[in-house]
Amino acid sequence: MSVASMGRRVLALLVDWLLCMVIAYWLTGSQFWTIAVFAVEDYIGTVLGGMTIGKRLLRIRVIRPGGGPVGFRWAAVRTLLLLAVVPALLTDRDLRGLHDRAADTVVVRM
């Protein structure tokens, strides 16, 4: 498995965000709750299968460096840092965002 490109990751994020906007509006009649819906979708998707709907469509997933599942605690760390935005924008030479470094995860192509 190779590390997913930044383009795939950003596109997956955009798909997830738009989907969460629709869900938030459908549930509450307002887009105010989009960030909460996104947080839940990202956390649950990362814990259960290492991928959100956007990641699934773009054929990428989040795994531990050894190939195993992320788990509850590290998925929470990753999601919280992703919501802060800046850690996700700062990447190292391996294209891992700071949120992935902190949670000891990597986004790979399937």
| Strand order in the sheet with the most strands | 1-2
Cα-based radius of gyration, to the nearest Å: 13 Å
Q: What does the average pLDDT come to?
A: 93
The number of helices is: 6
Sum up the overall morphology in one term.
globular
The overall strand count is 2
Strand content is: 5-15%
- Specify the helix fraction band: 55-70%
* Structural class estimated from helices and strands: mainly alpha
Secondary-structure element sequence?
Answer: HHHEHHHE
The poorly predicted ranges are none
How would you describe what is shown here?
The chain is mainly alpha-helical and 110 residues long. It has helices at residues 6-28, 34-49, 53-57, 72-83, 86-89, 98-103; strands at 60-63, 106-109. It has a two-stranded antiparallel sheet with strand order 1-2. α1 crosses α2 (34-49) and α2 packs antiparallel against α4. The termini are close together.
Summarize this entry quickly.
The chain has 110 residues and is mostly helical. The protein is built from six helices and two strands, in the order αααβαααβ. The protein has a two-stranded antiparallel sheet with strand order 1-2.
